[in-house]
Amino acid sequence: AQTVTQSQPEMSVQEAETVTLSCTYDTSESDYYLFWYKQPPSRQMILVIRQEAYKQQNATENRFSVNFQKAAKSFSLKISDSQLGDAAMYFCAYRHYSGGGADGLTFGKGTHLIIQP
Amino acid sequence: DSGVTQTPKHLITATGQRVTLRCSPRSGDLSVYWYQQSLDQGLQFLIQYYNGEERAKGNILERFSAQQFPDLHSELNLSSLELGDSALYFCASSADRNSPLHFGNGTRLTVT
To answer: Which residues of B touch A101 (CB under 8 A)?
Structure first.
């Protein structure tokens, strides 16, 4: 079974600074997707960024970028120019595929990101 | 707005009761997923449906069941409720394996 590990339960960063959230995963598959989701206090689950495993280029979405190291099974999220609105729980997720169209997300435990004004 | 609609937003009920949570996926999405988020267990995958058929089962209790209807909306039925079933229940939908999962705003279930 796939597992996703987020080793930082909580991180704190000054507004306008850069922060990196760590994520590692365990899988024997070669074809998969990785995601970062954000959950603000409103409890919505918001997609931040995604990475296809077959792509070597790291995904970028505005101030959010990832460092995807496939061999190391590492998928970190970098947030540049942190803003107060970035404060949230961040979940790393691995999308797995089984036979017959079955698939789903396995989530890490999350990292609580605090933005200091 | 993700396009995934969940009702109700909040539900308070007593132990032993039965409730039904409803989910309407994004237009065109054939897959629906149910997740449970509790403080001690994190986000747990319950079940997946694709175009009306069950495709994958996760940590879903026998007291829980789900179905997806021809119009693609889905319902999660929780019966013989226990205090430990109190959680946030999310529905998500996806068009295909190359598309991300989009989540609804969740249903907050409180069992007293």
So the answer is: 31, 50, 55, 97
